[in-house]
Amino acid sequence: MKGFPDFQNKEGRLVVGECTAKDLAATYGTPLYVYDEEALRRQARTFVNHFKSDSYKARILYASKAASFAALIRLAKEEGLNLDVVSEGELYTALAVNFPPDRIIFHGNNKLDRELEAAVEAGIGFVVLDNLSEARRLSTIADKAGQTVEVLLRVNPGVEAHTHDYIKTATSDSKFGLGLATAGEALQVIQGLPGLRLRGLHCHIGSQIFADDAFIKAAHIMLDFMVACQGQGLSMDILDLGGGFGVFYEDGDQPIDLAPFLEGLAQDLEKEARDRGIRLAEVWLEPGRSMVNNAGLTLYTVGDIKRLADGTNYAFIDGGMGDNMRVALYQAGYTAVLADRLDDAADNTWRIAGKYCESGDVLIKGAPLPDPQPGDILAILGTGAYTFSMFSGYNRLPRPAVVFVKGKDHREVVRRESLDDIIAQDLLE
Amino acid sequence: MKGFPDFQNKEGRLVVGECTAKDLAATYGTPLYVYDEEALRRQARTFVNHFKSDSYKARILYASKAASFAALIRLAKEEGLNLDVVSEGELYTALAVNFPPDRIIFHGNNKLDRELEAAVEAGIGFVVLDNLSEARRLSTIADKAGQTVEVLLRVNPGVEAHTHDYIKTATSDSKFGLGLATAGEALQVIQGLPGLRLRGLHCHIGSQIFADDAFIKAAHIMLDFMVACQGQGLSMDILDLGGGFGVFYEDGDQPIDLAPFLEGLAQDLEKEARDRGIRLAEVWLEPGRSMVNNAGLTLYTVGDIKRLADGTNYAFIDGGMGDNMRVALYQAGYTAVLADRLDDAADNTWRIAGKYCESGDVLIKGAPLPDPQPGDILAILGTGAYTFSMFSGYNRLPRPAVVFVKGKDHREVVRRESLDDIIAQDLLE
Questions:
Q1: What is the rounded distance in angstroms from the CA atom of residue B157 to the CA atom of residue B226?
Q2: Angstrom distance (rounded) from CA B121 to CA B126
Q3: How far is Cα B158 from Cα B179, in angstroms, rounded to an integer?
Q4: Is B151 in the same domain as B238?
Q5: CA dihedral (A363, A364, A367, A371) positive or negative
Q6: Choosing among B110, B204, B207, which should be mutated to test the A contact, i.e. which has the most A CBs within 10 A?
Q7: Which structural domain range is residue A266 located in?
Q8: Residues A82, A104: Cα–Cα separation, whole Å
Q9: Known catalytic residue: B19?
Q10: ipTM of this predicted complex?
């Protein structure tokens, strides 16, 4: 299907792997998060196989904040990916599936002492430092544990990607990292701290980036900055360029064509590093959304239908803003289909509203659809990233189950919350 | 403290009940949701004692979507409140503390069959219907169970409260309820459906309303509509006016003075009903936010401090957008204080950012504060509503504990999520 090559239309029916969406909904109930396992693996291989170099080690890190649950992290392990975690909870999930600690990188601003201690204890590969006071805290923790932690520093190259304010991360007043003007001094301090071994720099210019020139431009600025650092006696050989590659959500989105882009980027970096006389030991990319989003969809059951006097047509679904916060948070756009009526022409424009007790709980303002009927399965496509992971328990609605489909097979990989799960932390006495 | 009469400044220290915020943070850790139990009870009594009538039964329903957990629902029970629930999960919470079912009202759009069945089985007091197809579904379910369910219909009086788009609920294209133009016809059908007993009308004009005239205006429109309905042979004697009373979050907010407003409203409704020749058996109000918000605050620990070259000062806290989605969702404003330094003059304007891996995770853009130090306890005041209840597990950070303070005593009423809780639904095999 357009923008979603891994989902098929077979005689008007939406098919994931070799399973119809309708059968999956009947088996597991709705709302339901569904991933095509083969599509996830293909996308992992696209990154691993096309971002390669003979002159440096190319690492692909899955940014697990996009979606973190045991089965997905295990898949990332099996595909040889490295892993970004931003919390003790994400680290715990990774360790629960025996993800090799040396392939884990700890990210984020304001890592807690407890989290840094857990990271050091697990022996994870790298910590990307956000600022100098964090560097000092980690130094104390590592030194006390008698260990040396390899670190990078997050810096802001000052390149703006054209994206939503909330997910634009490298502007001058970003909460993340340090500006280039002040980073040099911080790096000098970090290089001298016990328990730390300075290895390189990280940047992340934003999310849902459609223009590859912004990405390349940021990379060159980073290389220039590495040259300047070298001149000041700072020894660094890892460049982490972050992620942020855009995906297709709805008509008009034009994602970067990954395979040629990644190959071009890998070569460009070889040349640009050589031209600047920099020895790069490793270059990292951190896809999150672009790794998992378009292998996923959410299935809902259509409930009540309401046609208002002003012409607005509402189709209510059994989930909404809690299982997909992105619309209320970012006014994100999505594509909806009726899973068993793909070949039916659109009758009207439908507003797809959830069942959360809030006016803003509308997932799509106007979707051209054949008139939905109660009981129809409605699929929202491309929900593999930042839906499960941002789930809100608002209205005490249960978190949906997650299902992996592999050809004819399917299995629950996260079970649906029960009513008892919902009140599990409430103390009743 | 200004806007928060239940929190005290004692020699520069923030005190809830007779406990310092700092001691609570030390005992239970941070982030921590804290409620003053006495303040909750006082607010419940303000509603119950000031909204009274000799000519109709005045019911106060706590809208539990504002904050639903066992201890709070038990408190609502003890204070004689009635209860709004909008899901099976909220109903389950209420039943877990033996909330009398006949004092529970089921609300919301697109209630699922499963939820309606649970409501009928529990024998709850009333269902507020959103639309006709829901009415038909409930009729079938009630009839099959051999029961008669008392119902109200939600209608839109077309009054706009000045509030955020997402929480403005009675405009003509709202997903909730039916417009007055079409409601009459629907009521005729509902009155004839087996298993249902039509009792009245519900409206809710919005949230965080500061102008009492909007509320009164909506009430009069509803009474006029009841007259019109009476003329068409529709028998209804309950009027549910919803909630939406604004609270103080930050300087400039001027909430309605509840006690006189409620007394005036109660009298006004007596007179207006009498003038129209309507016999009102019951009038309901549904405070949610205004019942609990300002009895609550959230405690955080200040972590890293970052001063950017452009003059932006960041103080990072150990929570953020996950435990308070309202800022990212509605650009909501809040008041922050350093819990042990209330008497210190502000040194600078501080941006209070959380530890979620997202640029938008900023709880306050510019708070005038004495320069925060790592380890300081920072309190955000007035977080009793729509914070715990909207909690998002983003970044796999644990949901904070909830503590009730009563004078010198304090107790955990919701325990903090553990790492094992976070992965509890992940299937590891």
A1: 12
A2: 12
A3: 8
A4: yes
A5: positive
A6: B110
A7: 37-288
A8: 6
A9: no
A10: 0.96
Burial of residue A173, with CB atoms counted within 10 A of its CB: 0-12 exposed, 13-18 middle, 19 or more buried: middle
Find how far residue A101's CA is from the centre of its chain. 20
Last residue of a domain, one of B238, B263, B290: B290
**Domain shared by B335 and B401, yes or no:** yes
DSSP code for A336: E
Phi, psi (rounded to 5 degrees) for A78: -60, -30
DSSP 8-state class, residue B376: -
Q: Is the peptide bond before B374 cis (omega within 30 degrees of 0)?
A: no
Asked if B148 contacts B195 with a C-beta cutoff of 8 angstroms, the reply is yes
> Which chain A residues are closer than 8 Å to B310 by Cβ?
172-173, 179
CB-CB neighbours of A74 under 10 Å: 20
Q: Do B70 and A427 touch (CB under 8 A)?
A: yes
Q: Crossing angle, helix A258-276 and helix A37-50, to 10 degrees?
A: 30
Say yes or no for a CB contact (<8 Å) between B131 and A306.
yes
Alpha carbons B384 and B295: distance in angstroms, whole number: 6
Pair (B279, B216) in one structural domain: yes
- B427 within a domain of the structure (yes/no): no
pLDDT truncated to tens, each residue of chain A (429 aa)?
999 999 999 999 999 999 999 999 999 999 999 999 999 999 999 999 999 999 999 999 999 999 999 999 999 999 999 999 999 999 999 999 999 999 999 999 999 999 999 999 999 999 999 999 999 999 999 999 999 999 999 999 887 665 555 555 556 678 899 999 889 999 999 999 999 999 999 999 888 888 778 889 999 999 999 999 999 999 999 999 999 999 999 999 999 999 999 999 999 999 999 999 999 999 999 999 999 999 999 999 999 999 988 899 999 999 999 999 999 999 999 999 999 999 999 999 999 999 999 989 999 999 999 999 999 999 999 999 999 999 999 999 999 999 999 999 999 999 999 999 999 999 987
Count CB atoms within 10 A of the CB of residue B419.
18
Look at the block and give the residue holding tokens 């068993």.
A340
Interfacial B residues in 64-83 facing A (CB < 8 Å): 65, 68-71
Q: Clarify whether residues A233 and A365 are in a common domain.
A: no
Are B324 and B373 contained in the same domain? yes
